[in-house]
Every structure is written in structure tokens, then in C-alpha cells.
Amino acid sequence: MRQAIENLIHFEITKGVIQDRDVHYVRNQLYYLLKCEMMDDLPKPKQIDYPSDALEDILNQLENKNILDGSKISRDLMDAKIMNVFAKLPSDIEKEFYNRYQQEQASATSWYYHYMQSLNYIRMDRILKNLSFSADTSYGMLDITINMSKPEKDPKSIILAGQTKSSDYPKCLLCAENEGFAGHYTRDSRDNHRIISTTLGHDTYYFQYSPYIYYNEHAIVLSEIHRPMVINHQTFSNLLNLCDQFEGYFFGSNADLPIVGGSILSHDHYQGGKHVFPIEKASVIKSWKKDEITYELLKWPLSTLRMKGTSKTKLTKKAEIFLNAWKSYENQDLMIYAKTNDTPHQTITPVARKKDGLYELDLMFRNNFTNVTYPLGLYHPHEDKWHIKKENIGLIEAMGLAILPARLQTELEEVKRYILNDTPLSNQARIHLSWADQIKKMNNIDIINIDQIIKHEVGIVFKDVLEDSGVFKQDDTGINAFITFIEGVLS
Ligand SMILES: [Zn+2]
After folding, report:
1. Ligand 1 centroid – CA 198 distance (Å)
2. H or E element at residue 73
3. For the sheet containing 304-309, what is the strand order?
4. Distance from the CA of 441 to the center of ligand 1, in angstroms?
5. Ligand 1: distance of its center to the CA of 267 in Å?
6. What is the DSSP string of 364-376?
């Protein structure tokens, strides 16, 4: 225990999270928290690569001493408290961020990003376990990540969660009140969580990094008030303004309706980051120029119109006109319905970025209509692809990065053995049977190329999933209808 504590202290000094001057304070706090006895001869620190290298050791010993109950959750609850000993107060972090921001925006975000990694809020050791690859498709390269970083709940944690009285504080996982929140068996600990305030329009928002980053500098911007997601004039304006506030970052919003939105519709928030998504490289099918704005219909499975211009005000106004036109657009032949009774179906997933001196705003037109044949959504992954992806196609997927469930890692290994050696699929992996049979029919599959072939085929399923989610299909009929809609709004 004492060795691991010294290793962790040394790590945080080398990362600049604490100074040599802080060592007595930090060590005393940790010894008290971890019920460790102080001795005169301190072990010499050894170099570690991640805070988790020391934390794992400490947590194991706490379990041996029965201070922790052996559930995975109790470990995560405790390690956030250990790391919080090293963390500055939110106001100090914000001050340091904005001092750096005055000098250079990028140095402020880079400092904060690395600070949150050093504090183990961003758990890099878990994120590095993700499996990522790209697949060449008719829309260019699409990116795939099998998400291994969110630990599965162990049985003991599930039992303990069941015995815990649920609480509505903080109201959701995104609320600003999570900063420093101790958590419990049903809510993640956020002791070492620190967020940066900013202003958008007349409202206060907070900038933070996602603890489970899916791409470089994966940021979340959340409103100070717990209120539902909304796509409107202010959303477009906020996203474009964020691109000015955080240099080199894109910002997008999930749609504000179920099925086509993200997992949290109850709290107004955006996502951003320093990453080029496949959609950014999509080719253009047709373009228009009007009132100093260029409009481009993209070759992209989700129906996307890209707007480019120098004026944020003009782009925002025009985007709002497109949003309103879309909300009332109907095309019975293509099964595009604006409403069922009074329930609206149409909205937009928007993405903003700044490139070569121009602002860009991608409008992805979405529809959440369901019927008996497609109870989860007509413009949602269809059932034949659920073995790979059943969840909503939110902002990140819509831009061309699939976040796929951890179960696929073992299931795809089984598919591989089934194709190569006819090894029967387990009950869990049988959902892939007809897909695996199709792959099996391909010629020249061998042990050398099988991994590459399976990855490519996963990419093709993801492409098909995105095509299911596209409202105007990328065939002549669909593209012509999309063109008619765009030209109708522009005229
Ligand atoms: Zn909330």
C-alpha cells in the first residue's frame, strides 16, 4: 500500500497536478483515507504509466482488509475519492484554464484534457482497451470502435444497486451538480470531476471531457439548467459560437426526439472534440450558392445538407428555415410522415465546424416514425442488423463512427472459428449465424485474411445501418426528392 501511494504521489508530481510543496499534505490525507499507518522509512517511488497502476494495488489491499466489499462499484467509488485528494477546487481549475486561454485557446484545452487524465477522471487505461478499425465502403472509410472501456456490472454490484434507495440528486448524469458528487451503488462517483463554465447566448453552460472518450478530446457541453434537449435557432447559434470558443473543435448536438436522439434527452447538451469524422470527407452530389451561403448535398447515408459561409447569423437563420420546413415536410410515396396525430417525427442532428476560414453546418434530416413492421423505427437499424447494432444512431454514429457493444469482441472470435473450422456458435453468438454463413460463402478465406474480412463485413453492416437511418435514400428517387425539398426551401 505504502509503495503504491508513493508511486501515485510521484506520478502526480511529474504530471504537474501537484507540486513538491504539496507532498506532506497529500500523503497525510491519503494515509487517513486509506487507513494506512505512517512509518518513518518511506518506500522509494517507482515510475508508473497511469494512475490505475497504483490504484489497482491500493484497491486490492483495501479489499483484503475488508475496507471495500469486493464489488466493482465500490472500487470505482473509492478510486475517485483517492484521486480527489490531488485535485484543485473547481474555481482554481477554471482560473488556470482561462489564464492559459488568454494566451492560447489550444493550450488551455490541452492542459485541461491532460489534467483530467492525470486525475483518472478520463480513464485512459480502460479507453486503450477499445478495439478500433476502419472499413472501406461506398461512402469512404467508416470508423468502428468496439467499446471495451465501460466495465460490465458484476453480480455483486447489481445486488448492491438493487438494495440502494434511488435518489433524484443530481437529476441526471450530466447535471452540473455532479461535480464532486460522492456517488453510491446506483450512481457514478464524480469526486474528481471538474467542469469549466462558459456563456452561450444568455445562458451558462459547462465544458467537460467525457470520462469514456470515443475520439480525441471528446468534449461535452451541458447547460447549467437541467432541461430537455432541443433543436432550434439557439442550438445552431450555440454550436457555431462554440467553434469560435474552442479552436479546432467541432460541436454537434443529438436530435431532440426519441429513437433518433442520444441516450440522454432530459438534459440540454452538446458534444464536441478535436477529431475528423468520416462525414467531413464525404463527397458532394450537388451544390447551390445563394446569399453568400454554399449548400452541398452530401453523398452520405444519412440525408445531409452542408451549409458553408462566413456569417454565423446568416447560417443560423437559414438553418432554422430548413428545420421548420423539414418539420412540416411530407412525402407519402417515400413514407416520410411529419406527424402521427400530434406527435412530431421530424428533427435535425446538426454538426458545426470551422474550416479554412468558413463556418460549416451539417444538417442531418431525421425521422422517428414507427409502424407495426418497424416498431423501433423505420429510419433506425432494421432487425437483420441488430446482431451488430440495435441502439439509436446518435450524433457520433451519424458522423460515421460506430460505437459497438463489448459483447462483439468474443462473439466475432466465435464467428471467425465458425467460418474457418465449423466450430459451432454458442447460444450468445448464434445471432450472427446467417451473417456468418454469408461470409463463409466467400472465396479464398483463410487464417491470414479472416480478421480483415470480418472487420470489413462489420463495417458494411454499419454502412447498412446508416442507410436504414437515412430518410431520403441514396438512390435516384431519394436523391431527387431531397433535391426538390432543398430547392423548395431555397427558392
Ligand atoms: Zn441533468
Report:
1. 17
2. helix 72-84
3. 196-200, 203-209, 219-223, 269-273, 250-252, 346-355, 358-367, 304-309, 293-298, 284-290
4. 50
5. 5
6. EEEE----SS-TT
* Angle formed by the axes of helices 72-84 and 51-64, nearest 10°: 120
Q: How far is the centre of ligand 1, averaged over its atoms, from the C-alpha of 232 (Å)?
A: 19
Q: What is the DSSP string of 11-42?
A: HHHHTTSS-GGGHHHHHHHHHHHTT----SSP
**Is the CB of residue 293 less than 8 Å from the CB of residue 456?**
no
Question: Higher pLDDT residue, 166 or 425?
Answer: 425
Least Cα distance to 351 among 258, 277, 247, 283 occurs for: 277
In sequence order, what DSSP letters do the residues of 91-121 get, joined into one string?
A: HHHHHHHHHHHHH-HHHHHHHHHHHHHHTTS
Q: How far apart are the CA of 228 and the centre of ligand 1, in A?
A: 9
| Candidate from 144-153, 180-189, 403-412 with smallest mean pLDDT | 144-153
What separation in Å is there between the alpha carbon of 276 and the centre of ligand 1?
28
- Cβ neighbourhood burial of 475 (10 Å; 0-12, 13-18, 19+): exposed
Confidence at 151, pLDDT banded by 50, 70, 90: low
> For residue 419, what is its C-alpha cell?
467460418
Model confidence at 38, in pLDDT bands (50, 70, 90)? confident
Rounded distance from Cα 121 to ligand 1 centre (Å): 19
Largest separation between any pair of C-alpha atoms in the chain: 81
Residue range 68-105, pLDDT digits in tens: 999 999 999 999 999 999 999 999 999 999 999 999 99
